[in-house]
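Quick one:
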Amino acid sequence: MADHQRIHPVQDPEAAAAPQTPTAPLVPRGSSRSDKGDPPESYPPFRRTIPYAPLKPPRRRSCCKKCLCWTISLLLLQILILGILAAIIYFVFQPKIPKYSVDAMRITQFNLGNDNSLSATFNVNITARNPNKKIGIYYEGGSHLSVWYTGTKLCEGSLPKFYQGHRNTTLLNLTLTGKTQDANGLLQSLQARQQTGNIPLRLRGKVPVRIKLGKLKLMKWKFLVRCGLVVDTLSADNVIRIRESNCKFRFRL
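Output:
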């Protein structure tokens, strides 16, 4: 029986002598490859982005705005109350403006001094009429009357304190005095106007009064009087004739 021979692989000496170069693995380490191939790449689902707009905090009224609103409300309320009171007074008492007139005027002094100052003293008769049926007038102290010629004050005085009742007429005899410095030009102008017989004068008055409604005495008011006068002469101790007299009146707090 023939002997069995064993074949042993013989190593090629040239191959053994040549250096072996490393080859890259077909599959990276730590990964596995499926028989079905690489899986398809997956992406996150598409989402529509909406820009973010922060919500504005609700506006709050500051203390200043609240105070302003309250102040305006109170003022409107006061105006409404005053309007109602004025309407009641008007319909109940039917107020009428007092009337005044300059009835006569006499000059006791009107001369030029050595220092070129003009001294004047006027006696003026004024009639004050109260046409109201239910309203009285208290004339308070601190009144002021003055007579002017073309912007220059000639004399001044005041009214006495008195009470004028309902539908009352009061005659007032007032003395007004004054002194004007450097009156040469003023006296020449007066003499030129005196030749024409028309000398314009202005009577101004500021009189504090209190109105009495029944038994109620109201707050103090200022009664303003403006009278335009035209006289024929300003000579002392002569009868002065008042050619024109036009008076206007108004109240002021």
